[in-house]
Amino acid sequence: MILGGDRCSWSRTDTCNAGLGARVHWALEGWVRNQGATGLRLVVQEQNPGALRFWQRQGYAITGQTLQRTRTRENVIHLLRKSLDA
């Protein structure tokens, strides 16, 4: 499954923007909290603004950025974090 941005796929396209990604994240966040974590971090490529909006709606904030280099291209990567403090 691909969630976020302008792409969303599962076996059916009617799951796009139906809240599935948020529900999966909510369940994962609860599990991580129960393990004693105080925060979550993730990265989003700059060319995926839809994914960035999704994660910001989940409470993540951009904490920085870095450059990802491959043989053929460079990508700006946003670093995001969400605090899980009570």
Automatic annotation (TrEMBL):
One Pfam family per UniProt: Acetyltransf_1
Domain N-acetyltransferase: 19-60
Domain of life of the native organism: Bacteria
TM ranges: none
Protein's name according to its UniProt entry: GNAT family N-acetyltransferase
Originating species: Archangium minus
Organism lineage string: Bacteria, Pseudomonadati, Myxococcota, Myxococcia, Myxococcales
